[in-house]
Amino acid sequence: MLYKKAHMNSNFEQQSTKKNALILAPHTDDGEFGCGGTIVRLLSSGWKVWYAAFSIARESVPKGFPEDVLSLEVQKATATLGIAKEHLSVYDYPVRRFSYHRQEILEEMIKLRSIVDPDLVFLPSEDDVHQDHHVIHEEGIRAFKNRKILAYELPWNSISFRADYMVMLSRKEFETKLDAIRCYRSQEGRKYSDPDYLKSWAGFRGYQAARGYAEAFTVIRWVVHEEELL
User: Fold this and answer.
1) Are 53 and 25 a contacting pair, CB within 8 Å?
2) In whole angstroms, how far apart are CA 130 and each of 6, 29, 30, 98, 99?
3) Domain ranges in the chain?
4) Mean pLDDT by 10 residues, the chain (230 residues)
5) In the CATH hierarchy, which fold is given to the domain comprising 12-221?
6) pTM over cut 0.85
């Protein structure tokens, strides 16, 4: 297993005193698609962000690329967002086989919980129909049930999505997200990687909130401590 060990508004500055966020991505690039702009916003607001990708999807890499190419691309993409390299954890669970490794995945999440001690966790939506994404959603809630949890949106995998938490993005934050996604050269043929599609979706979510670009999330749990503002 490839593994690098990690040593209800969008005003994140007022939401936590510790300011640690953890992104749970089933496969490399899911975190960038689901909350790349929000990651940029968090980092610029003084948060520390950790990113855990549970598969480099060797079995799905297009012909002409080395099978471990996604392990290199995720390093470039997360660095583009501003995530420190020591805050990136990459695993090598077999794509579409996460259900056979539930306990191992849960145990790795518990290790991450101890290392990161996150205030805020991002994970896939319960409405995401991809089998690996569903495992990360369920085990993520199990591991981090006492933390703030937001589920991110991957519209091509969802039949429905409850968008009850919006993070507004500046043009620069959104463009940085696109730059990170462009680091995945091996995935350029995917229709959902098309910048025009991504702009239209972020614009649609922004329109719902009456301004520019936005990323939408479902609130899974929102724990408010006594030192925090409601």
Assistant:
1) yes
2) 26, 14, 12, 11, 11
3) 12-221
4) 43 60 98 98 97 96 94 98 98 97 98 98 97 98 97 95 96 98 94 94 93 95 76
5) Rossmann fold (3.40.50)
6) yes
